[in-house]
Amino acid sequence: MSIVRSTRAAGIRRVVTIRTTAILAAVLGGATSCATSSPAPSSPPPTSAAAAVPATSATPSSSTGAAVAAGCDTTRWRASPISSARQVSVPPMPVITAVRTAAHPECGYDRLVLDVTGPIPGYKIRYVTKAVADPSGAAISVPGSSYLLVTLSPANAHAASGVATISTRAQALRYPELKGYVLAGDFEGVVTLVLGLAKRTAIRTGEAGGRWYIDVRS
Predict the structure, then answer these.
(1) What are phi and psi of 19, to 5 degrees?
(2) pTM above 0.90?
(3) Considering the domain boundaries, does residue 110 fall inside one?
C-alpha cells in the first residue's frame, strides 16, 4: 500500500513539474514575441556641424588676385595714348562747366569728372614730360611726378560772355595716384587739362548723363 502511494505522489510531482515548465516556457515566449514585434524607436543620428551650418561658396578672385568691391567700375583698363574722335555740330559749343574729383581706394582708382553742357567732345590722352600752357608753351606747376595731358575738342571752358567756367589755378590733391590737375588751355575750341600723377599708370574713360570722366589706376 505504501508503495502505491509513493508511486502516485511521484507521478503527481512529475505532472506538476511538466505543467510548471510549460507555463514558464509560454511566458518567456510571449515576452520574446512582444519585444520583436514592437521594437523601441531608434534615436535619430546626431547632426554634424557641417550639416547644421550652410556652406558658403567662395567668391572667385580676379585674374590679378585683387578683390573688387561691390559697386566699383569694372571697365577695362587701357594704356596711353588713347583717343576718341567725335563729330560734333557747332554752334553751340560744348562747355566744360565743372571739374570734380574723388578717390576710390576700395576700387583701386582715382577719378576726375567733367560736367559738360551739350554733347561730349572728342578727346586725346597721352603722357607728357611736363605741364605747359596752351598756346604759349609756358611751364605750369602742378603737383605730381608724372603728367597726363587731356585734350578735348570741340569744347570751351568759358561762357559765351568770356567768363571762365572752371578755375585756371592748379589744384592740389592728396589721392593715392591723382596728385593734382590744372586747366592748361582754353583756346579756339580746344580745352587742355594736365593731370599730375604719382607715377605712370593705366587709364580708362567713360561718360554718363552729361559727364565725362577719366580714371587713373592707383
Answers:
(1) -65, -40
(2) no
(3) yes
